[in-house]
């Protein structure tokens, strides 16, 4: 099974398929899920300070390294800073704490998790962390308002990725046009529409699944790969993990890709205004 990579605007190459650990409890569940993913050949793990399981991710990676399953440079780890950590000086300290929690030497990709707070001050510290060798690539998550261009204009190092909701019902076509001049690429959370049955059971995915002898989920994930999106579906089920990753032995035709593109604009599953995001998320702080 051949893993695919995406070339970032900073010259780094990121594994296009990974495992997300959002809402996976810290401790045994996260450690087991990450360890199983690494044994399968998955080489990209997506976590965040807000997920409260970075230490568990690091423990699983270090265990896999001790057992010879992976080498240090094989695994790509993404994590994210929360807005309470934004600001010059404050962000630098938060990065050092993140490095301590992960305990894997450096961070492959560091993102701003939300689009509010002192994101420009945080970005300056992130750029310094790249120059110091603490972080390889930097990017953003959930920046879809005018704050996107505001940060782009202030950034010396342009964001390598933008992580947002993206799936066949909401393909982020216009957002991709906005970030194209910077060489920024899309990472998809909710790649399966949060497991929504209406999306997964679309007739086209059933028909293509029968043709290629794949599940509807595998067809959707394959569509993402061919669209150039980076995906990291969350699961702690080893069988589902294996099936999700088994998408590199077939290819959709151009006509089939175009047919799936016609689903765009149907719906998005997370539609919250910036004002409501600030009200809901702004006061919360993840524990160290």
Question: Overview of this structure, please?
Answer:
Helix 1 packs across helix 2, helix 3 crosses helix 4 and helix 8 crosses helix 9. It is built from 12 helices and 10 strands. The strands form 2 sheets. Strands 3-4-5-6-7-8-9-10 form an 8-stranded parallel beta sheet. A two-stranded antiparallel ribbon has the order 1-2. The chain is globular, with a radius of gyration of 18 Å. The chain has one domain: TIM Barrel (Alpha-Beta Barrel). It has 288 residues and is of the alpha/beta class.
Write a concise synopsis of the structure shown.
With 288 residues, the protein is α/β, with parallel strands linked by helices. The chain has helices spanning 28-40, 54-66, 90-102, 119-131, 147-154, 173-179, 197-200, 203-212, 216-227, 238-245, 254-261, 274-281, and strands at residues 5-7, 13-15, 19-20, 44-46, 76-81, 107-112, 135-141, 161-165, 185-189, 230-231.
CATH fold-level name = TIM Barrel
pLDDT averaged over residues: 97
The percent range for strand residues is: 5-15%
Tally of helical runs: 12
Subunit organisation of the chains: single chain
Class per helix and strand makeup: alpha/beta
Cα separation of the termini = 38 Å
Number of strands: 10
CATH superfamily placement: NADP-dependent oxidoreductase domain
CATH class: Alpha Beta
Helicity, as a percent range: 40-55%
CATH architecture: Alpha-Beta Barrel
Rg: 18 Å
Major beta sheet summary: 8 strands, parallel
| Widest beta sheet: strand line-up | 3-4-5-6-7-8-9-10
List the uncertain runs: none
Give the CA-based shape: globular
User: How many structural domains?
Assistant: 1
Order of helices and strands: EEEHEHEHEHEHEHEHHHEHHH
């Amino acid at each position: 099974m051949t893993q695919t990579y995406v070339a970032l605007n900073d010259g780094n190459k990121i594994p296009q398929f990974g495992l997300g650990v959002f809402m996976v409890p810290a401790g045994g569940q996260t450690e087991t899920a990450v360890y199983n993913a690494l044994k399968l050949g998955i080489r990209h793990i997506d976590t965040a300070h807000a997920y409260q399981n970075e230490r568990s991710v690091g423990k699983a990676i270090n265990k896999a390294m001790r057992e010879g399953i992976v080498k240090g440079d094989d695994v790509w780890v993404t994590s994210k800073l929360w807005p309470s950590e934004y600001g010059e000086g404050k962000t630098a300290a938060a990065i050092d704490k993140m490095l301590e929690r992960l305990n894997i030497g450096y961070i492959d990709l560091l993102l701003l998790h939300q689009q509010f707070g002192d994101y420009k001050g945080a970005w300056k510290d992130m750029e310094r962390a790249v120059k110091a060798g603490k972080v390889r690539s930097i990017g953003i998550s959930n920046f879809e308002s005018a704050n996107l261009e505001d940060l782009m204009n202030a950034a010396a190092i342009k964001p390598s990725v933008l992580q947002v909701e993206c799936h066949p019902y909401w393909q982020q076509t216009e957002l991709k046009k906005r970030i194209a001049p910077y060489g920024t690429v899309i990472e998809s959370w909710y790649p399966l529409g949060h497991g929504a049955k209406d999306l997964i059971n679309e007739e086209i995915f059933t028909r293509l699944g029968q043709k290629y002898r794949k599940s509807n989920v595998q067809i959707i994930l394959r569509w993402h790969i061919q669209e150039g999106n980076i995906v990291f579906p969350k699961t702690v089920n080893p069988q589902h993990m294996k099936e999700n990753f088994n998408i590199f032995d077939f290819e959709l035709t151009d006509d089939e890709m175009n047919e799936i593109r016609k689903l765009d604009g149907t719906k998005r599953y997370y539609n919250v205004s910036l004002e409501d995001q600030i009200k809901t998320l702004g006061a919360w702080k993840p524990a160290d």
